[in-house]
């Protein structure tokens, strides 16, 4: 895109807009054909011109002024599309996501008391100095399970959590699964009925790790995990007993941003585990190849000796 | 009799009954992982299709926004609404296509997303993005009925005027059905010219029902009004005559059937009257029928007297 020395464009409301400058873009897009009266066509053309002008202004002025631009600032969709790895996560990121906000004082579960920093404005403040190590521990578990080629199921049964669990499963490729709708009772304890005879016999129907983003809505599922001996990770809030899961992460379960942050970190750890698995496999394959070659050489030498003898 | 270990030459294991030729339990077979990331929803085909369509919709919206075709005002969106009816596969056919029995709510969700993509297609066509429209077609054609062309060609037979300027229509109400001919009256001046004295004769709508005039066929003035309402609403009293053959039902049903038949014929004679007739609901076949009697009740809704003991 070549920039020329032009007079600075002055923005006007689109109804009185007259173009003052030649467009900076290299090619002219085709004018759309609107199947309507000439009046509406003219109005639509004006709107298009206005929108193009706005875009040109933004691109022109973004080069000038502050070094903090759209590209290098946090935007709301980053929590879903650009999560941070557990090593990069900081306390300030957790606070910005609202992970420290618990529930009302009266609904505090006594087993959760060790994770509470205090109470303010009637709600519990979760101690993030404990949240971060718990999150890193859960990430280590996910990484190790993925390195052993284990499958991870991400469960977030509300509509708001759907995109986060789907992305997390995508990050883990073949080993990642998501559940963004109702947990079907008997999924782990009665797979024969849920999936059918053939599928339950020929496919691995039990995940090796399940991550719950809203455990309070999935208590029956957690019970099934305990019966089926499946390790669980969950975001536990101050109104939840943290002992219902194997690896609790004390944080705010009502904040979507927190859930996206946590599940993003866990899925990145899972992805790292899969990389470790692939590296191990390729190293193993190399060793096997070398062993094979060594054996072949030995056989050839022995035959040579026999022939010599 | 218990073996005395001190005196025997058995090891503890052998004493407890473990023999050396007992095989170690085999580890469980490693089954393949499930293919779909939404396997644990137990409705993978549906959820994968839905998420796939929604991501397609998002991509299309992004492209249209980049071309400045979106956002679009409601007025222009109404202009660009697709003209043809959408011909999606019915529930059973779509269940076959997806190889999964669809619930009604799930079917409706899919159809909703498909209709939204169809609207984007017409916007793309208006913006002359033909390749994008073709790509959208390839996606949507998987969900359309195979006999779509044939069904679209089967348009409802429009009511036509014959060579004498008469229209024929059928009206139904409750158990009655009426065959109605709407015939324009001759110009009064013509009539007057034929007579001896050239006086002005005001035009009159003559209604013949089963060969009897309206006033003699219907005793109830409300029924007579119902029959004349289409002419009154459109201001065409005296312009047309009516000949009707009506069978079935009672007085109210027959009057309603005749009124519907007249309205259907009148909209062909007088197209400007169509919105006026629609405002008064005269173009709608009243779907109310006599409700069936239910067991345990005296009539359709009437209950027997409640007895305390």
UniProtKB/TrEMBL annotation, chain A:
Q: Name one GO biological process term.
A: translation
Record's SUPFAM superfamilies?
Ribosomal protein S2
Q: Which UniProt keywords apply?
A: Ribonucleoprotein, Ribosomal protein
Tell me which GO cellular component terms the UniProt record holds: mitochondrial small ribosomal subunit
- Residue ranges for the region (Disordered) are 277-309
Skewed-composition ranges (Basic and acidic residues): 293-309
Asked if tRNA-binding is a keyword of the record, the answer is no
Q: Which residues form a coiled coil?
A: none
Q: InterPro entries per the record?
A: Ribosomal_uS2, Ribosomal_uS2_bac/mit/plastid, Ribosomal_uS2_CS, Ribosomal_uS2_flav_dom_sf
**What highest taxon heads this organism's lineage?**
Eukaryota
Task: Return one GO MF term.
Answer: structural constituent of ribosome
Family named by the database record: Belongs to the universal ribosomal protein uS2 family.
This protein is called: Ribosomal protein S2
Species name for this entry? Answer: Hydnum rufescens UP504
Automatic annotation (TrEMBL), chain B:
The organism named in the record is Hydnum rufescens UP504
Similarity annotation = Belongs to the universal ribosomal protein uS9 family.
Q: What is this protein called?
A: Ribosomal protein S9
Extract the SUPFAM superfamilies matched here. Ribosomal protein S5 domain 2-like
Q: Which InterPro entries match?
A: Ribosomal_Su5_D2-typ_SF, Ribosomal_uS9, Ribosomal_uS9_CS, Ribsml_uS5_D2-typ_fold_subgr
GO cellular component terms, alphabetically, are:
mitochondrial small ribosomal subunit
UniProtKB keywords: Ribonucleoprotein, Ribosomal protein
Q: From the Swiss-Prot or TrEMBL record, what is one GO molecular function term?
A: RNA binding
Please indicate if the UniProt record lists Plastid as a keyword.
Answer: no
Q: Does the keyword Lyase apply?
A: no
Recorded hits in Gene3D superfamilies, A to Z, give: 3.30.230.10
Q: Name one GO biological process term.
A: translation
């Amino acid at each position: 895109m070549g920039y020329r020395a032009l007079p600075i464009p002055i923005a006007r409301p689109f109804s009185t807009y007259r173009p003052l400058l030649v467009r900076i873009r290299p090619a002219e897009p085709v004018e759309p054909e609107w199947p309507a009266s000439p009046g509406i066509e003219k109005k639509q053309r004006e709107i298009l011109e206005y929108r193009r002008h706005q875009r040109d202004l933004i691109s022109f002025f973004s080069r000038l002024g502050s070094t903090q631009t759209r590209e290098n600032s946090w935007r709301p969709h980053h929590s879903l599309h650009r999560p941070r790895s557990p090593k990069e996560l900081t306390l300030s990121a957790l606070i910005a996501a609202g992970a420290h906000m618990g529930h009302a004082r009266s609904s505090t579960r006594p087993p959760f008391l060790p994770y509470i920093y205090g109470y303010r404005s009637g709600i519990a403040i979760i101690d993030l100095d404990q949240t971060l190590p718990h999150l890193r521990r859960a990430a280590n578990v996910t990484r190790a399970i993925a390195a052993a080629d284990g499958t991870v199921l991400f469960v977030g049964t509300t509509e708001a959590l759907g995109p986060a669990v789907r992305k997390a499963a995508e990050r883990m490729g073949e080993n990642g699964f998501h559940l963004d709708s109702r947990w079907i009772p008997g999924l782990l304890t009665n797979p024969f009925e849920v999936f059918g005879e053939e599928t339950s016999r020929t496919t691995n129907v039990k995940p090796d790790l399940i991550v719950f983003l809203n455990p309070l809505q999935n208590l029956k599922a957690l019970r099934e995990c305990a019966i089926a001996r499946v390790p669980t990770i969950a975001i536990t809030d101050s109104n939840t007993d943290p002992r219902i899961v194997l690896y609790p992460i004390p944080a705010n379960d009502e904040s979507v941003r927190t859930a996206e942050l946590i599940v993003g970190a866990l899925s990145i750890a899972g992805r790292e585990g899969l990389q470790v698995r692939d590296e191990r496999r390729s190293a193993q394959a190399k060793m096997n190849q070398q062993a094979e070659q060594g054996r072949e050489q030995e056989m050839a030498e022995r035959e040579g000796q026999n022939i010599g003898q | 009799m218990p073996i005395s270990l001190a005196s025997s030459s058995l090891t503890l294991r052998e004493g407890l009954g473990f023999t050396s030729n007992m095989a170690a339990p085999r580890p469980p077979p490693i089954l393949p992982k499930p293919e779909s990331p939404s396997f644990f929803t137990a409705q993978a085909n549906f959820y994968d299709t839905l998420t796939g369509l929604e991501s397609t919709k998002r991509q299309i919206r992004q492209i249209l926004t980049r071309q400045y075709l979106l956002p679009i005002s409601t007025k222009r969106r109404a202009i660009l609404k697709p003209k043809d009816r959408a011909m999606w596969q019915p529930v059973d056919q779509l269940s076959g296509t997806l190889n999964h029995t669809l619930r009604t709510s799930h079917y409706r969700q899919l159809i909703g997303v498909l209709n939204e993509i169809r609207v984007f297609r017409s916007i793309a066509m208006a913006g002359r993005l033909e390749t994008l429209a073709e790509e959208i077609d390839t996606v949507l054609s998987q969900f359309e009925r195979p006999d779509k062309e044939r069904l679209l060609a089967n348009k409802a037979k429009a009511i036509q005027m014959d060579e004498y300027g008469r229209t024929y229509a059928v009206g139904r109400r409750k158990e009655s059905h009426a065959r109605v001919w709407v015939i324009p009256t001759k110009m009064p001046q013509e009539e007057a010219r034929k007579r001896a004295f050239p006086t002005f004769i005001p035009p009159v709508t003559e209604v013949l029902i089963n060969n009897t005039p309206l006033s003699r066929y219907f005793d109830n003035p409300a029924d007579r009004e119902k029959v004349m309402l289409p002419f009154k609403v459109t201001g065409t009293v005296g312009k047309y005559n009516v000949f009707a053959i009506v069978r079935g039902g009672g007085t109210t049903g027959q009057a309603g059937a005749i009124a519907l038949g007249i309205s259907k014929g009148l909209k062909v004679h007088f197209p400007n009257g169509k919105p006026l007739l629609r405002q008064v609901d005269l173009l709608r076949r009243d779907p109310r029928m006599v409700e069936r009697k239910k067991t345990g009740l005296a009539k359709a809704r009437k209950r027997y007297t409640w007895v305390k003991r």
